[in-house]
C-alpha cells in the first residue's frame, strides 16, 4: 500500500517535512471525491491526538469521579452539582467526537514558510482602528478551533474576523460586521506558525 503524499500549502515545501507517524503512512487511499476530515499541520495533528488521548483517559475518569461524588449528595432532581457534572460530561463527549472525526482521515499540510498575505496557519498581529487604546492582539488563524499557539488566541477561517483576515497584507485595514456595528483592524504583521 502506497502512503498518501503530504500536501504542501502553496507557500511551503515538503523538503523540511518530518516523517509521518505510522497511522498516517499506512492508511488506505481516500476514495475519489472523498474530502479529508480536516486540514492539519503535522504539529496540530499531534497536539489534537494528545488532547484526544487525555480526554478519553484522565478526562473521562475525572468526570466519572465528579458524577459519583455528586450522586452521594442525595436527591438527583435538585442536585446542582450532579447536573453540572453531567453537563460537563456531555460537552466533553461532544468534543471527543469532534476530535475523533478530525483525526479519522486528515490531510496533513505543511505550514507556510513565508507569505505576502495572511493564510491559515499564521500568527497575525492586529490593532483596533477605532479604539482609543492601541493594544495589539495576536491570533492564530486556523482551520479548526482546536488548534493552539502559545501567547495567541485562536480564530478560525470561518469566523467573521478570520474571514476578514484571509488574504490581507501587512498594513492593510480589514473589517467585519458585528452585532454592534462594523469592527475594523489594522494588520500590523504576520508570520507562519511552525508549532
Topology:
Blueprint: E1 7-8, H1 22-25, E2 39-40, H2 42-71, H3 80-104, E3 107-110, E4 122-128, E5 137-142, E6 153-156, H4 160-165, E7 173-178, E8 181-192
Parallel strand pairs: 1-3, 2-3, 5-6
Antiparallel strand pairs: 4-5, 4-8, 7-8
Note the main attributes of this structure.
195 residues, alpha/beta, Chitinase A, domain 3, 2 domains, 5-stranded mixed sheet, 3-stranded parallel sheet, 4 helices, 33% helix, 22% strand
Brief account:
It is built from four helices and eight strands; from the N terminus they run βαβααββββαββ. With 195 residues, it is an alpha/beta fold.
Description:
By secondary structure, the protein is of the alpha/beta class. The protein folds into 2 domains: 7-109, Transcription elongation factor, GreA/GreB, N-terminal domain (Helix Hairpins, Orthogonal Bundle), CATH 1.10.287; 113-192, Chitinase A, domain 3. Helices cover 33% and strands 22% of the residues. The longest helix has 30 residues, at 42-71. The protein is flat, with a radius of gyration of 21 Å.
